[in-house]
């Protein structure tokens, strides 16, 4: 084969550049700490700076409180090799029942195992060696070109930043779960200079979401939300060292990550200094179970103390990490009712002064924020109880989820809003589908409805519709990295990544392969990202039901 001199030379230069870049790992001097890039990814041509501390250890006396600034430590150059994961906890209903049930249901096979979590043993997952209470760290991926430009004395223009809030029902997950942001970085190059990608940890389970009046006497509710805000403040202050533009921050989150973003959009809506932590938001299936009730919050709080055999928060602060990690895993594992993980954001009278949907009704939200809102075709099934086939048991389960709901309210819900009509006219074909619609509405997609209405249609909305389109199915599309062995429709993945990155770059989603993205507008237009086509549809969300949930009659 004859070599073509121009191309050979270019390839030679490219491989020389890659070699040089992998041999030279740049430094970022943050003042309070010095970091060296942890690695260089040749395929994506980016550096990664992993495990950068953004807050002091939330341990000992700092437990269950808002995070504190990190202290100065310049004695060593950090290489970020020391991985960090916040303590994890998975409910038995999820690990022992739900996965199997969903599998049966989708295949049309009857599911005949017990749905009572007490019939299953508590088998704690083996602990991840990276798990530690001292977990308030973040990772950065930055295109090599941008990083080298940032370290140059004549700095080039800075680029937009995407900050990723992972999902995991507020009790699981971590910043490094999806390391495939190389796809997003690659796609962003089509719309400009690219983006800097940041991924954060925040406290989970009891560590981040303990709540209730008694907790608030000597601690802070919603500490996990405060962690996220601390991380966003860090990004505002330090991202320029990595070539990022702190005036162009987009927060991207899925599930619990997006549910958190929804709370930030409605938190401190009137306070100016809290306004500019980020400019744009992409909420993928924003999820949380409404916990407005102080009594319910207090029950979880005392349950946690009882497991620890202590009677006050200060005593809990005195215990070893290991003890607390085991107690958190046990409480969430053993005591979560089907569909819930006990913990998550709660109404605390301060940062969260009411449920986000209610704050939106009261026009308390950041109206200047640009948002893109994603939902999946079947959000509810993964957290829907198999009990739904017996209406009396299902009624009991609804009362467990909403302890203050009145019997006549359940009647209204099950007769009027979600009647047992299975000919498809109501959007479901059987009892499980019906319950799944209930879950999808209150737990996920009405959140998008509230925001679409609040912004008077000045949003971009999409439906992730690759069958079966379950909750979480979209995540591997957001982070698809081109690996052909993954069961992902690459066309849909690249189009989604195009829309995400171009929106992050200038507020308008565009794609080199997908159609023009029409704003939600008065026609309630959505982009349908499906396996049989990418096209414009009308929002299928049921407005009557969402309006009802927004009014909070369930408590
Ligand atoms: C960061 O670099 C380290 C060292 O090369 C590597 O082990 C790790 O997988 C990298 N992480 C990402 C997200 O690229
Ligand atoms: C449960 O279902 C399996 C097939 O999935 C069947 O073999 C078994 O007999 C069923 N058990 C009961 C008690 O119905
Ligand atoms: C609490 O006390 C019970 C009963 O004495 C014991 O089994 C359990 O291990 C104790 N838990 C902790 C966290 O000390
Ligand atoms: C914490 O532990 C120390 C030493 O074990 C003990 O002196 C102190 O009284 C404990 N404080 C609380 C609040 O239990
Ligand atoms: C579905 O069933 C309901 C109640 O029986 C009926 O009113 C409605 O017309 C039916 N719709 C369709 C599309 O068959
Ligand atoms: C809404 O739909 C109508 C009818 O299809 C169309 O005439 C109108 O231009 C649409 N409005 C917007 C803002 O897209
Ligand atoms: C992938 O999705 C695109 C867009 O919807 C569709 O045209 C294509 O047929 C899908 N490919 C496969 C293999 O299903």
UniProtKB/TrEMBL annotation:
Protein's name according to its UniProt entry: Carboxylic ester hydrolase
Residue ranges occupied by any Carboxylesterase type B domain in the UniProt entry: 45-547
Pfam annotation, one family: COesterase
One example GO MF annotation: hydrolase activity
The family this protein is said to belong to: Belongs to the type-B carboxylesterase/lipase family.
Gene3D superfamilies: alpha/beta hydrolase
Keyword Signal: yes
Domain of life: Eukaryota
Keywords assigned: Hydrolase, Signal
Signal peptide residue numbers: 1-20
EC number(s) on file: 3.1.1.-
SUPFAM superfamilies recorded: alpha/beta-Hydrolases (SSF53474)
């Amino acid at each position: 084969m004859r070599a073509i001199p121009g191309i050979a030379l270019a390839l030679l230069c490219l491989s020389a550049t890659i070699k040089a870049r992998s041999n030279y790992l740049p430094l970022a001097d943050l003042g309070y700490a010095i970091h060296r890039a942890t690695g260089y990814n040749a395929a994506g041509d980016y550096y990664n700076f992993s495990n950068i501390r953004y807050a002091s250890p939330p341990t000992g006396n700092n437990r269950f409180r808002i995070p504190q600034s990190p202290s100065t430590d310049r004695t060593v150059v950090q290489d970020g090799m020391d991985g960090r994961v916040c303590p994890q906890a998975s409910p038995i209903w999820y690990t022992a029942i739900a996965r199997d049930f969903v599998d049966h249901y989708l295949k049309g096979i009857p599911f005949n195992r017990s749905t009572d979590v007490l019939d299953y043993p508590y088998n704690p997952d083996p602990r991840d060696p990276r798990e530690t209470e001292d977990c308030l760290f973040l990772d950065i991926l930055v295109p090599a070109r941008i990083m080298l430009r940032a370290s140059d004395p004549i700095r080039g223009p800075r680029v937009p930043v995407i900050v990723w809030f992972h999902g995991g029902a507020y009790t699981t997950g971590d910043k490094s779960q999806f390391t495939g942001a190389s796809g997003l970085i690659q796609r962003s190059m089509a719309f400009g200079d690219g983006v800097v990608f940041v991924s954060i940890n925040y406290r989970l389970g009891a560590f981040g979401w303990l709540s209730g009046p008694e907790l608030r006497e000597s601690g802070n509710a919603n500490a996990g939300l405060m962690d996220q805000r601390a991380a966003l403040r860090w990004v505002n202050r330090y991202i320029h060292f990595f070539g990022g533009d702190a005036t162009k921050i987009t927060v991207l989150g899925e599930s619990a990550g997006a549910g958190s973003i929804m709370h930030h959009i409605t938190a401190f809506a009137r306070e100016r200094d809290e306004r500019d932590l980020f400019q744009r938001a992409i909420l993928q299936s924003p999820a949380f179970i409404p916990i407005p009730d102080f009594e319910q919050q207090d029950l979880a709080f005392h349950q946690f103390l009882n497991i620890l055999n202590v009677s006050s928060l200060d005593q809990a602060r005195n215990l070893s990490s290991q003890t607390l990690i085991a107690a958190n895993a046990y409480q969430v594992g053993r005591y979560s009712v089907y569909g819930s993980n006990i913990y998550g954001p709660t109404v605390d009278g301060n940062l969260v002064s009411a449920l986000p949907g209610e704050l939106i009704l009261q026009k308390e939200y950041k109206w200047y924020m640009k948002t893109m809102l994603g939902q999946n075709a079947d959000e509810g099934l993964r957290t829907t109880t198999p009990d739904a086939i017996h209406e009396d048991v299902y009624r009991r389960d609804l009362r467990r989820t909403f302890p203050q709901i009145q019997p006549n309210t359940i009647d209204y819900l099950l007769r009027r809003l979600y009647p047992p009509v299975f000919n498809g006219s109501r959007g479901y074909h059987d009892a499980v589908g019906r319950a799944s619609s209930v879950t999808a509405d209150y737990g996920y997609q009405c959140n998008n409805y509230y925001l679409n209405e609040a912004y008077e249609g000045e949003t971009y909305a999409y439906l992730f519709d690759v069958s079966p389109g379950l909750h979480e199915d979209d995540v591997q599309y957001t982070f698809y990295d081109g690996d052909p062995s993954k069961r992902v429709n690459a066309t849909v993945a690249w189009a989604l990544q195009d829309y995400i990155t171009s929106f992050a770059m200038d507020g308008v989603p565009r794609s080199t392969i997908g159609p023009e993205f029409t704003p939600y507008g008065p026609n309630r237009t959505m982009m349908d990202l499906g396996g049989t086509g990418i096209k414009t549809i009308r929002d299928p969300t049921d407005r009557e039901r969402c309006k009802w949930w927004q009014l909070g009659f369930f408590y």
